[in-house]
Amino acid sequence: MSAAETGPTHGYNFAYLDEQTKRMIRRAILKAVAIPGYQVPFASREMPMPYGWGTGGVQVTAAIIGRCDTLKVIDQGSDDTTNAVSIRKFFAKTAGVATTTHTAEATIIQTRHRIPEHTLKAGQILVYQVPIPEPLRFLEPRETETRRLHALKDYGLMQVKLYEDIARHGHIATTYAYPVEVAGRYVMDPSPIPKFDNPKMNMSEALQLFGAGREKRIYAVPPHTNVRSLDFEDHPFRVQQFATPCALCGAEGVYLDEVVLDDRGGRMFVCSDTDFCEERRAQGFTGTMSPDWKGEGANGGRQANER
Amino acid sequence: MTATLPSGAGFTDAVGQTQALFRVLMDAMARPGSIGRMPFDLAPPAPLTPELAAIALTMADQEASLWLDPGLSAVDAVARYLRFHTGAPLTDDPAQGAFALIGDPRHMPPLDAFSQGLEDYPDRSTTLVIAVEELAAATPDNARAFVLEGPGIAERAAFIASPLPDDFRAQLQRNRARFPRGVDCLFACAGRIAAIPRSSTIIGGV
Amino acid sequence: MYVAVKGGEAAIDNAHTLLAHTRRGAPEVPEITPAQIAGQLTLAAERVMAEGSLYDPALAALAIKQARGDLVEAIFLVRAFRTTLPRFGQSVPLDTSAMAIERRISATYKDLPGGQVLGPTFDYTHRLIDFLLEAGAEVPEPARADAGDAVVAPRVTDLLDGESLIERETRADDAPAPDITREPMEFPASRDQRLQVLARGDEGFLLALGYSTQRGYGRTHPFVGEIRFGEVAVEFVPEELGFPVPLGNVRLTECQMVNQFTGSADKPPQFTRGYGLVFGQGERKAMAMSLVDRALRAHEFGEESGAPAQDEEFVLSHCDNVQATGFVEHLKLPHYVDFQAELELVRRMRAEYAAREERVEEEARE
């Protein structure tokens, strides 16, 4: 049986990539898992979607996905954003795998910019799309230099940058792609997730894989691994607090999108994780802007990650 | 042509089987000390074990060379089988192999004989694939067990793999001390597989 | 009442249908064929082959049609197709001195063996819009050299080499050249890696960089030793045969820029080389490439460096238009999660600022 006959899309292999490319990516993934937080160079291929639109994540997913997997793809926390739809369709077409929008049902979740609100479980794999994998890139543009700094575990530049933030603004002015230290060794870019999501990376039961296609890097955080957001003793890491619960499902302690309702300052805050929000509404939870709003206290203060 | 074909079959469904096996390998590496199950069997020429053959066929190719231990490289049929099914260059130098296949762990070279990677590129190291005769889960108080802590491990993981060189525990500890340089070890036996990546801390005396 | 936006999938499908419709244009105008593009918009198709790094005129023409004439989009289509092709190995090095020459000019010699062959060029045309083309006028037959009267034209650099006036560039080993599409690049890059990146690099970007060296940002004292364009045979040695077999011909433009070098402690004064080679007739690109190649060698010759065109990481990391267009255009994707985080920060910082101002005012009043 030729490889071309094994995939549902005529002329292309299962999950689009040829087997040699998959092997190359798989070798990089094994190394990435063994050296948590270290960016493994890999011979990223041109993919049929543009660089910067998730080619790294797509290559990682294509290299690991099998016929028995169930795939979920989110962008900004939502399954319905155009790029999430496009990537989900790509794998449904080229690999014929089952897809889902439910976090709990997925074995592989490819994401851009968010970590789902449901706590991920053992056996799940979270694949991040990464635009700029180098956490030091905006402090030092040269690859030859940043590679040396990682080798020497010299992260003084980053400390100075964060400290200058504090001196100037009174707090660290980085709100997303907030750098983390992995397993006490490498400083790593968590991809442009809001720093709200950083704590979810720490000691997660799920395997976290990161793919940067244009920059040709793969890195990983194994399950049960220490992921510490960089901070200072007198300025500990803190996440954003939202003043109101989700206007549709009443969830608290979750990341919210601000939706502008009119041009007179009207706005509402709703869950960024659309699957989480829909599930809660299906369970009867309501928010202030639900048609069947049940009033304060009706939700019993249920929050994310409390199931 | 048939005269040059090696004995021993490869995968019947290379795309599906290598994907399934890779996931087992990745999971083993991501959860050091856990025992994974290999989903199927191969029939390579002895003394190459089915587990070693399956891992080689899954991971090696023209771009990733193989080092064979003396027991394996002495058998011509083994080299021919691997060349035919993987296309990987075979090397005599343990420091040149992307993967090292070890059929006789009692007499394996020390871990530091293999490529340790560079400070700037620690990924350029050898991954060892070791055929053991016993591979089983254990409790951390078992004196024979490798007891591990570190990334991928909730508290502590423990498993038994044997035979291995007497000073293997000390070698693993020195390997850990070289982090992020160092080698990663896969142990395979009777359809089971476990890993000790360089990131694992080895608990206990030598 | 807010309704979560659904139906992204249907919207995408509709957009694609509309794209196909728009691509076709007015139905009363005949549909353009890839053969017309390959045959009449040849330079567009050749640029797509060069930067798509795949020699296939018909495929390049089809990609241009599919891309509605957007060459960067067409280059992207060709690259994505190329990456799925099996790779058999490396060809025998091309012998451009054996090129079937259609055009060959040298700026360093008035006349030379093989002569100056102008070929099909815009160079001496007056750039006046030719309204006759609109009417589809007949074109006169060009003058042609007699068949069998093939031009024998040694490369200008070989002539200089006869006097040892130009640096020798020979590989010390038979090792296969690295392939930037198979191995991630590492800095500093080898020259063969650099040339591969430049050969598929964006014409506009390299043109601007080459131009910058002429204006003093990393000057290299260049002369066009030679530009030649024509067909060259490609040969390949299959493992099982052990001798080269011809695969076919490709049309290439080669530019050898000759640059002054005053010598160093261990090298006598001599000319050095900047090299450009592209698929098709791509003189602008080949010349720009050779200027940038030479600029990137500044370090090798111990020349003063620091200009953008001499900065290897800067040039090689940014000259690929498929990468560049993807990342620039990805800003179109939703970023509202991160923007939300920034909104919160800016609001908080404004509140802190206002509170500070208020305190200052209060203190002033007291």
TrEMBL record, chain A:
Keywords, in A-Z order: 4Fe-4S, Iron, Iron-sulfur, Lyase, Metal-binding, S-adenosyl-L-methionine
Keyword 4Fe-4S appears in the UniProt entry: yes
Enzyme Commission number(s) from the entry: 4.7.1.1
Entry's Gene Ontology molecular function annotations: alpha-D-ribose 1-methylphosphonate 5-phosphate C-P-lyase activity
Signal sequence coordinates: none
Disordered: annotated span: 287-307
Catalyzed reaction equations: alpha-D-ribose 1-methylphosphonate 5-phosphate + AH2 + S-adenosyl-L-methionine = alpha-D-ribose 1,2-cyclic phosphate 5-phosphate + methane + 5'-deoxyadenosine + L-methionine + A + H(+)
Record keyword Lyase present: yes
Family from the record: Belongs to the PhnJ family.
Protein purpose: Catalyzes the breakage of the C-P bond in alpha-D-ribose 1-methylphosphonate 5-phosphate (PRPn) forming alpha-D-ribose.
Protein's recorded name: Alpha-D-ribose 1-methylphosphonate 5-phosphate C-P lyase
Organism: Pseudochelatococcus lubricantis
Source taxonomy: Bacteria, Pseudomonadati, Pseudomonadota, Alphaproteobacteria, Hyphomicrobiales
From TrEMBL, chain B:
Entry's EC annotation: 2.7.8.37
Enzyme class: transferase
A GO term, aspect molecular function: alpha-D-ribose 1-methylphosphonate 5-triphosphate synthase activity
SUPFAM superfamilies: PhnH-like (SSF159709)
Keyword annotations of the record: Transferase
InterPro entries recorded: PhnH-like_sp (IPR038058), Phosphonate_metab_PhnH (IPR008772)
Presence of the UniProt keyword Transferase in the record: yes
Keyword Transferase: yes
Domain of life (superkingdom): Bacteria
Record's protein name: Alpha-D-ribose 1-methylphosphonate 5-triphosphate synthase subunit PhnH
Automatic annotation (TrEMBL), chain C:
UniProt entry keywords in alphabetical sequence: Transferase
Major enzyme class: transferase
Entry EC no(s): 2.7.8.37
InterPro entries, per the entry: PhnI
GO molecular function: alpha-D-ribose 1-methylphosphonate 5-triphosphate synthase activity
Domain of life: Bacteria
Protein name: Alpha-D-ribose 1-methylphosphonate 5-triphosphate synthase subunit PhnI
Lineage, opening ranks: Bacteria, Pseudomonadati, Pseudomonadota, Alphaproteobacteria, Hyphomicrobiales
